[in-house]
Amino acid sequence: MTSSSVPLLPSTERSLLHRIAVGQSEGRTPSLVGAVAREGRLVWAGGRGDVVSAADTQYRIGSITKTFTAVLVMRLRDEGLLGLDDSLEKHLPGTGVGGVTVAQLLSHTAGLSAEPPAPWWERTPGALRPDLADVLGERPLAHPPGRGHHYSNTGYTLLGSLVSAVRGVPWEEALRTEVLEPLGMGRTTSQPVAPHAQGWAVHPWADVLLPEPAEDLGLMAPAGQLWSTAGDLCRFASFLAGGDDRVLAARSVREMRTPAAPPTTADWDGGYGLGVQLARRDGRTLVGHTGSLPGFVAGLWLSVDDDVAAVVLANATSGPQTGVLAADLVRIVAEAEPRIPETWRPLPETDAPPLSLTGPWYWGTYAYGLKALAGGDVELQPLRGAGRGSRFRSLPDGTWIGLDGYYDGEVLRVVRRRDGSVSHLDLGSFAFTREPYEPGDAVPGGVDEDGWRGTR
């Protein structure tokens, strides 16, 4: 029996409810909902305050919208319709910032300004900014492109327009047909659909409320328009863990989760991939996004290693720390009910591994172990201490390509002697031999002919 068929323990559910209750009370928000998914299945949802349904009430999710926009862009890349290193100008000419690349826009390293010109775009109709020139303003670049991470809402406006230009349909239509419908996210929409929460501002010094407007953001929609539910976002988080071939393959989703922008000097525990935020919390790596718009705050975090995702949504402009709360929900489940490993099973006969290559190998005096995986893939990991390790996918020409870690994208190949015997493994010019510095081995620079010795 796997953990996916087992509900959470009552004690775990009690801890989850307590955490969101504290978050709602201390955050002074009219309502707050939380939900947890484990191994792709919603296992808990709870709410406090004025909530119709914890899992199915819509809240505005702000910048979590950016991750959806990024998925659409990655789909275009996978279809060969654009490249991540393409300049924006190639597909969306005339913006005035066309030299920036698609990857830079996705990772917020294009140097664009964080916000469009006044008035405050989140509380005013998108009709005030009918053209991209109105969004970009007279000074669209705040920094040189590619030099560092600078979060930009205008950058994701450009990405939404890029999707529309390449796909030939509005951003909203592409999102609905290519992502939301295949993933079964029927409660994620551009406009609110009942039951939905009203957005409120809570006075900082008194327990009174003021309604916040819910504007249609127009061209800025790809940066923060969406409404969604805790249940739908848990489904989306599970997609970010493993992909879905109807939307985006696992490898492309893994690419999104790979750091693409360095952290700022003030935040060494965070970073940014391609449309997703990255964070280190409680010793685990979290992937997801936070979001806010006047009247709403939202947080979505996923621990791939634990296969636990959590979503927290609230309807107040400020106060509830939804990102912190979502991370806490992941921690509560992961620590109270650790992931149960998959049952070990031998490989099928069709996946006969290259056993003659497995076992210890040496890069200089560093000891490594080569392990055979399914489908002819292999894994090379250091045997002692920290070191460079990666998994490798088998290629038809008998080589392997790195999938992660230091050797991601690097080629591993077997070098043979004239008689066909294995001389060494070549990995990015590094020679891995069966013995450390054995005389006669193909070690660059040669080996002292007197071999190993003690001190005199």
TrEMBL record:
Residues 24-334 form the Beta-lactamase-related domain. Pfam families: Beta-lactamase (PF00144), DUF7586 (PF24491). One of its GO terms (molecular function) is hydrolase activity. The keyword Hydrolase applies. Keywords: Hydrolase. The keyword Hydrolase applies. Coiled coil: none annotated. This is Serine hydrolase. It comes from Streptomyces roseolilacinus.
